[in-house]
Amino acid sequence: MTIIEATIFAVVDAPEVSLAEGEQAGVLLLHFFRKLGWNGMDFLNPCKIRTTQEVYDSLHKKMYERYSDTIVVGMFMVNNGPSVDNFIPQGKVHLLEGWITPASEEGETTYAA
After folding, report:
1. What distance in Å separates the CA atoms of residue 53 and residue 29, rounded to the nearest whole number?
2. Spatial separation of the C-alpha atoms in residues 19 and 88, rounded to whole Å
3. Overall pTM surpassing 0.85 (yes/no)
4. 74: buried, middle or exposed (CB in 10 Å: 19+, 13-18, 0-12)?
5. Residue range 8-57, pLDDT digits in tens
């Protein structure tokens, strides 16, 4: 197993998020990322957002309550959710350098997560 060292940009409390009536399950992660400080326009790299298994499981459970297909929710979380590290204190999120990258200058095409 290769361990990749990453510089921690910030350590923050895991935000509480929920879904409003009628919102799709995946929107929960957008709420989570916005509460971490993402502006919705810049490029977001969820691989550079690390948290505890407890926080990850809580997000998964809330999404599953809205859309009860274990495989779909699980794959969505694997592809779009935060990473899990065992050394992170309970209830915390580590934001690594480059977790967000400013959107391109005007005139260039940008695709945010």
Report:
1. 15
2. 26
3. no
4. middle
5. 899 999 999 999 999 999 999 999 999 999 999 999 999 999 999 999 99
